[in-house]
């Protein structure tokens, strides 16, 4: 391939990438415009776990002048991105798929679908199970006379961090399967390092969750269990390599028979 042809191919790939990124951005914007009318309702839905945990008369507050407007807009943009995520991943897949082998395509589609489903499962786990427990614990340990009223911007930052932490945690099976399939690590090695993974899971839980044992455990235990799930799935889809027989030299009788056969020919 000549230099000119290489440049044309590179430019065509850049143009295609630009077009697919533009389609993804347009998809997010269209979904955002469709949800804009319900921006305040979306934030109320996001804040429901904390509002239910607050004592009677408790409420969220806004300490910045523009927060009552921009915070619901950010929540709506986040919701629009999540709704458009399957289409965005499709555009990404359509861009990289032509350069993959057939077996890589067969592996890639299930992994992408599983990644989206698991990420949403992680967010749902955080919203429906973790948030009520964490917020109940926080409001329950507040000293007498202290009114728990969280700033809406701070609450959004906290929620996004927790969503990312649990969403990425639930991607562990996909990562484990991918590492095994491309040959970076074996299933036996994954079982061998299991104790280190368990310790690391509780360290990660301590870093990305509030300083209470309950929330740390609710992140660490799923991380460990999902790691075990990744090992099980990897064991099922990985074919064991056939054992290669060790070389055995010919005996004297076998050598003589081979030589006799050669002489006859």
SSE string = HHHHHHHHHH
- The total count of helices amounts to 10
Secondary-structure-based class equals: mainly alpha
Mean residue pLDDT: 85
**What's the N-to-C terminus distance?**
52 Å
DSSP strand (E) fraction? under 5%
CA-based shape: flat
What labels describe this entry?
10 helices, flat, 265 residues, mainly alpha
Notes on the structure:
Helices cover 77% and strands 0% of the residues. It is an all-alpha fold. It has a domain at 9-170. Helix 8 (194-208) packs antiparallel against helix 9 (213-237). It is flat, with a radius of gyration of 28 Å.
Short description:
The protein is 77% helix and 0% strand. With 265 residues, it is an all-alpha fold. It has a domain at 9-170.
Layout of helices and strands:
Elements: H1 3-35, H2 39-53, H3 67-96, H4 102-140, H5 152-169, H6 172-181, H7 187-192, H8 194-208, H9 213-237, H10 252-264
């Amino acid at each position: 391939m000549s230099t000119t042809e290489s440049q044309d191919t590179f430019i065509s790939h850049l143009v295609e990438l630009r077009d697919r990124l533009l389609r993804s951005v347009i998809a997010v914007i269209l979904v955002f415009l469709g949800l804009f009318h319900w921006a305040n309702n979306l934030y109320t839905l996001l804040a429901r776990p904390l509002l239910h945990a607050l004592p009677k008369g408790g409420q969220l507050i806004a300490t910045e002048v523009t927060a009552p407007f921009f915070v619901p807009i950010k929540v709506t943009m986040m919701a629009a991105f999540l709704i458009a995520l399957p289409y965005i991943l499709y555009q990404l897949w359509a861009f990289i798929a032509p350069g993959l082998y057939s077996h890589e395509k067969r592996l890639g589609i299930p992994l992408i679908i599983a990644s989206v489903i698991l990420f949403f499962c992680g967010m749902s786990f955080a919203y429906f199970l973790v948030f009520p427990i964490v917020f109940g614990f926080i409001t329950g340990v507040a000293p007498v006379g202290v009114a728990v009223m969280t700033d809406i911007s701070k609450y959004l930052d906290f929620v996004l961090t927790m969503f990312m932490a649990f969403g990425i945690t639930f991607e562990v099976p996909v990562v484990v399967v991918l590492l095994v399939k491309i040959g970076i690590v074996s299933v036996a090695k994954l079982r061998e390092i299991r104790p280190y993974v368990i310790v690391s899971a509780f360290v990660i839980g301590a870093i990305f969750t509030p300083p209470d044992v309950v929330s740390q455990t609710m992140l660490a235990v799923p991380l460990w269990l999902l790691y075990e799930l990744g090992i099980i799935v990897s064991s099922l889809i990985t074919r064991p390599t056939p054992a290669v027989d060790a070389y055995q030299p010919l005996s004297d009788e076998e050598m003589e028979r081979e030589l006799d056969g050669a002489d006859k020919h």
